[in-house]
Design goal:
- The structure is a single chain.
- With 543 residues, the protein is an alpha/beta fold.
- It folds into three domains: 151 residues, NAD(P)-binding Rossmann-like Domain (Rossmann fold), CATH 3.40.50; 170 residues, no CATH class; 209 residues, no CATH class.
- Helices cover 51% and strands 11% of the residues.
- The chain has 17 helices and eleven strands.
- The strands form four sheets. The protein has a five-stranded parallel sheet with strand order 3-2-1-4-5, sandwiched between helices.
- The longest helix has 41 residues.
- The radius of gyration is 31 Å and the shape is flat.
Length: 543
Amino acid sequence: MNTTAGYSDGKDTIAARANSAVLGAQGETAWSAHWGRRRQRAFILFTRLAGDVVVTALSVVLAYLLQESWPRSMGEVQRTPFTMAPLLARVALAPEFAVYLPLLLLAPITFLVVFQWRRLYRQDNKDIRPFRDTGTIFKGTFLSTLLLVMVALSYSRGRTGGPLDYPSLFFVYFFFVASLGLILFRSGVLIGLLGLHLLGMGRTRVAVIDSGEAAPALLAPFRSPSTEYDMVGYVTLRDQSSAGAWSEALWLGPLASIRELINKHDLGEIILAVDPSHLSADQRLDLAQTCWQMGAELKMVPPFYPFFHTRTLSETLGGIPLLQVERVGLYATIPQVIKRAADIAISLCALVAASPILLAATILIKLDSPGPVLFVQQRVGLNGRTFRMFKFRSMKTGNDPKKHEEYLKKLIKEGQSHAVDENGKPVFKIANDPRITRVGRIIRKTSIDELPQLFNVLNGTMSLVGPRPPLPYEVAVYEDWHMKRLNIRPGCTGLWQVSGRSRLSFEEMVRLDIRYIEQWSPWLDLKILLKTVPVLLKFWQSY
């Protein structure tokens, strides 16, 4: 009975303190602390809105000038940098421009609606990179221009029953002028923010609560001037001895002193980077209550970081908040279907185009040394299933794989960088291997030996782009997190092959493979394939 009563009292105490925390969050301290950030974000949003309105309206005038030149009613025009603004205003008031006045009013409204739909007004000040939204702006401008054409055409036919009142070329000019103007304006705003951040202005001072395990991976993003954050340091659960890999100079203090630390270092945000289960119920409540009462925003890194870098979607079930781990990149179903369709189409075209090379390589290999033309090897593919990978034979037959097995195990376990060939090309083979034939050196250097892998792409065991297909004895020494690279089909080329670095450790290559899986898009595959072509051409030019 006593135990139950004590437990009940404990629950009542926590609930009462939780209510107190919520009430405390409405106090003057919290409001004053949040007001500065809200005012800054509101100013940035207002600048974007006003700038978009001015740029789109100005684009209508400039597109008219490109189409029709200066109105005759203005007489002779004296153009100087100081008179351009009044001249453009006179163009808008000229009688010749009267038919374009509806567009001058309609264009900004259309752009605001479309840009809001494309989420270009989202409050994302944590990624301040100029030109980051170039693609989205192009798409939004194209859609807005298309809507303007449809409205203008409907208006013209409804009024006169005839064709469009505006020349078609006008809308082409408008699209390019508006796109360029919006990209330059929005990037200019971000460059201005970066300049302020470099001067230490407008940034949110943040501290990370960490056990010392995930801290090094979290440090770099928070210290970058391309975010609104200014990393002050880290807070440990107990004392400095649990700091782990963090620098001693960045240690602020233990979690028990969080109130004093917020005051002393003027912290605007606290990032909880440990599994909440490591904190007691009292510690979690005290942390939330302290942050709310003192106006510091409290954010939490998902417990599955750094194993998954997917987005999370929040929902509530019976008053219980839930986080859904969203499938992104190649973890989702539709991207897998798109990627497979592209693999089939491109590999078929590539096999037809490369058929003369395939025939010539077959003849040369057969004449150079005894043995089969194709080298068939067991590799590990999608979901850890083995498959037969095809390559042109480039080595003498009857080789013992023990030497290569030892090399790969050393590469993975000791973390050394992989070997490179005489051209600096990353390889997972022993450089200058004497077992390679004369023709084998040529087809390896020009990557002709890998052309039969297009048949693997066709039968679905490989993809054009993806992680390198590992050998079974290589997978046998993988750590658990290395297995994530087996979640998709292996590829003929990949992100790390075109990363521009001649030497990478095995862990760096695995991280690049995982990054590719999580950030996949058709454009990323196209980019990797296009980057692969110059590498191959470089080797071909040496012959």
